[in-house]
Amino acid sequence: MATQMDPINVLQHRCLLHLRRRIRDIEDGRPAKERYMRLQKDGDTLSYQGNSEEVGCYVAGHPLSKRNCYFEVTIVDAGVRGTIAVGLVPRFYRLDHQPGWLPHSVAYHADNGKLYSGNPVGQQFGPKCARGDRIGCGIQIENIEAGLTTVFFTKNGKEVGSVEVPVSAEGMFPAVGMHSMGEEVKVNLQAEWFLDDDESMMMVDSHEDDWGRLYDVRVSGTVLEYVGKGKSIMDVGLAQARQPLTTRCHYFELEIIDAGEKCYIALGLARRDYPRNRHPGWSRGSVAYHADDGKIFHGSGVGDAFGPRCFKGDIMGCGIMFPRDYIMDGDGDADDWDQLEVHAGHAAVQNVLYLNDEEEDEEDGEEAEQEQEGRKVSVFFTRNGKLMGRREMALPPGGLYPTVGMLSTGEKVKVDLHPLSG
């Protein structure tokens, strides 16, 4: 007479058989059921189908393994907000939450460059990502047996950083989250990533840290490339330097590598909190030389005739002619933006582009009475090394930041923020 198994033992036995079957299916390469919600899937392309208030999430059918330990996601369209997350989650992760928000999940978020590891509050981790960028995620399998693994993330093939996370028995599954209309990505679950020994020992200067704000602009070394839609005047791609111009660094240049469809390229200076969807020169606290029509725009959407148009190969420059007694607190401090103030004093470093003596003599009587905020400086522009003209403007609190704007498909420029150094 056969003995009956206790119900608990029967349940454990079935779970064990199910687990063995799933492992065997994975090893045999059999298809597994992927899960997604509020997303449309067409081949390897995922597009957001929600109302921008609810999260859409995709979870792959197989976890990362020793044979397949890395995957990549290419941003086809950043949509309204670019709230795209790439990471790893448990098998039955809730599809109404971004990867990284819930326990036992980790993700790199494109819109703010933060890492989320089992917490809806992220930590600063890497650069933001935009249209055309490729985000990768992988695991280092050496210590996975100990219940921990190191998860690393990449951007365009370069490692951004890593974090150690616990691993559940079922493994960690590739996941993609989206949260605003228009977002679309392409997923490559079979991607490979190798780090050569020589490459791992190299310090690569991407120059991305030179920029405090980047919107619809991709940085590759000193090259800025427009990756926006280019369909309306609201689709401005904006790059604003981390440091303002100072008496130590008073001039910068760009070379037009590709004029794109319309050559809607603008070079100029803007206040730190300049609107992201406005071309330099269009709004208050900015001035810019526009390549497509040769006009200068100074806090207005209507430009004035200024110089010749610029084309592929032309070099546009912009600088400030500081009065002799100008110094800037925090000069050279890239991280302490809020502490920058402008005031009169004895200049510690001489500027070769001081205003001439006649201009200084005319203003001597007025400068003593002017307040620190809103003092005038002379902004000048060049084209291929020749002076095009000047425009006087008030220096806002914190200074004026090198700013580049682009607005049509294919535009690409090479920027030198320190052409007079070295």
For the structure shown, list the relevant keywords.
422 residues; mainly beta; 7-stranded antiparallel beta sheet; 9% helix; 38% strand; elongated
Task: Compose a concise summary of this entry.
The protein is mainly beta. It is built from 3 helices and 30 strands. It is elongated, with a radius of gyration of 27 Å.
Model description:
Mean pLDDT is 81; it is low at 15-20, 23-30, 196-205 and 329-373. It contains three helices and 30 strands. It is elongated and about 65 Å long. Helix content is 9%, strand content 38%. Strand 21 and strand 22 form a beta hairpin. The protein has 422 residues and is mainly beta. The protein has helices at residues 7-27, 197-200, 357-367; strands spanning 35-37, 39-42, 45-48, 56-59, 70-78, 85-89, 106-109, 114-117, 123-124, 134-140, 148-155, 158-166, 173-178, 183-188, 211-215, 217-220, 223-226, 237-241, 251-259, 266-270, 286-290, 295-298, 304-305, 315-321, 326-329, 341-344, 376-383, 386-394, 401-406, 411-416. Strands 1-4-13-6-7-8-9 form a seven-stranded antiparallel sheet, with no helix packed on it. A seven-stranded antiparallel sheet has the order 2-3-14-5-10-11-12, with no helix packed on it. Strands 15-18-29-20-21-22-23 form a seven-stranded antiparallel sheet, with no helix packed on it.
Compile the SSE list and pairings.
Layout: H1 7-27, E1 35-37, E2 39-42, E3 45-48, E4 56-59, E5 70-78, E6 85-89, E7 106-109, E8 114-117, E9 123-124, E10 134-140, E11 148-155, E12 158-166, E13 173-178, E14 183-188, H2 197-200, E15 211-215, E16 217-220, E17 223-226, E18 237-241, E19 251-259, E20 266-270, E21 286-290, E22 295-298, E23 304-305, E24 315-321, E25 326-329, E26 341-344, H3 357-367, E27 376-383, E28 386-394, E29 401-406, E30 411-416
Antiparallel strand pairs: 1-4, 2-3, 3-14, 4-13, 5-10, 5-14, 6-7, 6-13, 7-8, 8-9, 10-11, 11-12, 15-18, 16-17, 17-30, 18-29, 19-24, 19-30, 20-21, 20-29, 21-22, 22-23, 24-27, 25-26, 27-28
